[in-house]
Every structure is written in C-alpha cells, then in structure tokens.
Amino acid sequence: MSGTKHLINPPGTEGIYKSMQFSQAVKSGNTIYVSGQVGVDENFKPGSGIEEQANLAFLNLQHVLAEAGATLEDIVELVTYHTSMKDILGFSKVKAKFIPKDYPAWTAVGVTELVLPDLLVEIRATAVISG
C-alpha cells in the first residue's frame, strides 16, 4: 500500500472537493495529511468566538481522521493558523480537551485572514497509523 494515494472526502464534503478543488485529506501509506479544518458547523456557519470555532474545527478534524481510519491520538503534527494570537489561550484550552496527553508537534502561525471573513482559526494535521 506504500506509495499509493487515497483521497479522503467524508460525505457532506463533496461540494468542497468540486468547487474548491482539494481533498479533506490524502492518505499515503500509513500517513494521513489533513487539509486545514475550520470552525464551521454542518451548514458551514462559523462558530461564535475562538473557543466555539476551535471546538468545531477539532470536531471536523476528528471526522476527517475517522474517515481515514485514524483518531486524534494518531496526530504527529499540528499546524494552526490564527487571525489573532491573542486568542491562543482560548484555543489551547479547547485543544487540551481533544488532545489531553501525548502531545504532537505543534506550530501556531498568525495570519491576517482565512478563507471566510469570520474565521478565527484553521487546523492542519499530519497523522500516522499503524500498518
């Protein structure tokens, strides 16, 4: 299976795949590369505030990982993009609920904006599962 590329697009994300032209994740061998997940609900409505958006983003990340046969515990690296680094403590509080131990590598990056005007955070992840 090493060297093969499997596109991961859970039900409900087909519109994103077609219109934005990217997969929610790509699995190659035992590694899963997850595209940035944002804090929107199933109707693509952004959450209110950093903690609600972070919670929704982690739920979306969890959903994509599950579709790929992985869990949050399989994450080896997180990269998060924040429109305000002043929100990092609120984000970290939510992150600790989803990843309470065995922390992955993490890089937090401040950006001026994300794909939708009301978004505050985006989470990209790399996970490795056992073969």
Automatic annotation (TrEMBL):
Example of a GO MF term: deaminase activity
Protein name: Endoribonuclease L-PSP
High-level lineage: Bacteria, Pseudomonadati, Thermodesulfobacteriota, Desulfobacteria, Desulfobacterales
One annotated Gene Ontology cellular component of this protein: cytosol
Classification via Gene3D superfamilies: RutC-like (3.30.1330.40)
InterPro entries: RutC-like_sf (IPR035959), YjgF/YER057c/UK114 (IPR006175), YjgH-like (IPR038743)
